[in-house]
Amino acid sequence: MLLPDYDFMSDTTEQTTTRFVTFITPNLKRFDLAIMTTNRFYGKKLITDLQSGRTAIVGQDDLDEEGYLEFTFKLTEEEAVDLKQFLEFVVGTVHFTD
Question: Looking at residue 4, what is its pLDDT?
Answer without folding.
Answer: 79
